[in-house]
């Protein structure tokens, strides 16, 4: 292996340690306990698992979590009322609506009901709008791309002036990732399912962020030697050697790409742990802001 392995677990632990200190300080000096409300609609096992791990992280770091588990057929108006109630509740500093919502619900309207100062996922239209503009500061940046940025910086990769290729243009990963890198003066190319000559485009990149949801899609021959490769993808593939009969891989052909890249994140253990760490950091920031300690 020639690439430096970017240890997302270790970086996430150091972020969480700092968050824990911040929570203790807020409690002891201001009698404020940061609180995160989670809203889970329906029975998707992956969504349940994500929400459970976010609640566990809150408990580990001394924060309160307020779980709302709602039936898949909840009416738009009823869900809206719950979110509006959380918006008014002063014990709740952050509101997280687990996506995707069932198809009959209008996710944009629901996310729009989260006040910008409690939008710890960074998905509300106001925060997204600010992130996409020059010289505007969102109150919160979406957790997964923010975590990717930390990982890129953790190995000292120079972002300013670098060519960065982001694979995927979703609202939760690809687009905010591209804006974060752009605001740090990288030159950005965003690729998607209709990009022509994808391998040639990727070959230009000093920084590659792959967020498409296709197992081991990015090939070693597409990667410029020395590039920093961040693999956001989470894909299940069959594996007869595992008790479960399956295992997780990313969007990058890790075994081959690690021989070419300068630094690379593994899956699991790369971006995944950072997403939750960033959510905890955003929730602490929300509580600090409510207490008038940060802008
Ligand atoms: P989406 O399905 O919302 O978006 C996928 C994107 O990939 C789309 O923009 C799509 O293009 C693009 N795409 C699909 N096929 C190709 C292709 N052949 N070539 C180039 N681009 C392609 O996914 P998400 O952004 O929500 O998630 C992406 C991956 O990241 C998933 O595996 C997900 O599980 C994982 N993830 C991991 C997180 C973590 O914490 N580690 C958090 C969030 C997501 P188009 O727009 O044209 O359709």
What does this structure look like?
- With 295 residues, this protein is of the alpha/beta class.
- It folds into two domains: 85 residues, Rossmann fold; 130 residues, NAD(P)-binding Rossmann-like Domain (Rossmann fold).
- Helices cover 40% and strands 16% of the residues.
- The chain is built from ten helices and eleven strands.
- The strands form three sheets. A six-stranded parallel sheet has the order 1-11-8-7-5-6. A three-stranded parallel sheet has the order 3-2-4, sandwiched between helices. It has a two-stranded antiparallel ribbon with strand order 9-10.
- Strand 9 and strand 10 form a beta hairpin.
- Helix 1 runs parallel beside helix 10.
- The protein is globular.
- NADPH dihydro-nicotinamide-adenine-dinucleotide phosphate binds next to helix 10.
- Give me the strand/helix succession: EHEHEHEHHHEHEHEEEEHEH
Helical/strand content category: alpha/beta
Please tell me the total number of domains: 2
Number of strands: 11
Low-confidence stretches: none
Q: What is the CATH C level class of the largest domain, in words?
A: Alpha Beta
CA radius of gyration is 19 Å
Give the CA-CA distance, first to last residue: 44 Å
The ligands bound in this entry are: NADPH dihydro-nicotinamide-adenine-dinucleotide phosphate
Query: What is the oligomer described by this structure?
Result: single chain
Beta content: 15-25%
Mean pLDDT: 97
Q: In which range does the helix fraction lie?
A: 25-40%
CATH fold title of the largest domain: Rossmann fold
